[in-house]
Amino acid sequence: MSSSRREFLKSLIIPVSLYATVACSPAQESQKVAQSFVQSYYVDIDLPKAKGFTVALASDKIQQQEQLMQGLAPRSSADKPSVNFKLLSQEENQEEARYEYLIESSKETLQVLVKVRPWEGAWKVSMFSESARELPQED
Q1: Cα–Cα separations (whole angstroms), residue 117 to 3, 44, 68, 95, 112
Q2: Which CATH number fits domain 26-70+78-133: 3.10.450.630, 3.40.50.2300, 3.90.1010.10, 3.40.190.10?
Q3: Among 70, 60, 75, which Cα is nearest to 126's?
Q4: With bands split at pLDDT 50, 70 and 90, how would you rate the model's confidence at 135?
Q5: What's this model's pTM, rounded to 2 decimal places?
Q6: Which residue, among 85, 84, 87, 106, has the nearest Cα to 97 in the 3D structure?
Q7: What pLDDT, in 10s, does the model give residues 28-52?
Q8: Distance (Å, rounded) from C-alpha 97 to C-alpha 17?
Q9: How many CA atoms lie within 13 A of 108 on its CB side?
């Protein structure tokens, strides 16, 4: 192998290894979990599925909601509102990630904070909170 070819291959090692580190970063995994939770909880309104992404306070909160809903007939898909969400901000480190989402439906707009932490080898939602946002007034 010529030395120029060898130097070229060496120059690829750093960018490729850097890409592999970034592509598999904890930030991406934590964001996937947060996004899956938001999809399940707010869009699909599927508490058991959403609970699968949670631990600690978040799991307790969903369990309380499930108890309150016992005996109620599940909503038909026609009764479920159309819900959209978008990521507003994110903060990530090795110990915790925080994602703030805007959840919008025809009935309300919420600002939601989702905290995600590593738990037994996987990222899990450990806490979520929401606050109502005022809908713009139509003139």
Answers
A1: 47, 23, 27, 6, 17
A2: 3.10.450.630
A3: 60
A4: low
A5: 0.74
A6: 87
A7: 999 999 999 999 999 998 999 999 9
A8: 24
A9: 9
Rounded Cα–Cα distance for residues 71 and 68 (Å): 9
Q: Residue 16 corresponds to which tokens in the numbers above?
A: 């490729």
Query: Which residues are CB-neighbours of 33 under 8 A, at least 6 positions away?
Result: 53, 116, 122, 123, 124, 125
Amino acid letter, 138: E
Q: How many CB atoms lie within 10 A of CB 101?
A: 23
6-23 in b/e form (b: 16+ CB < 10 A) is eeeeeeeeeeeeeeeeee
Whole-number pLDDT of residue 3: 62
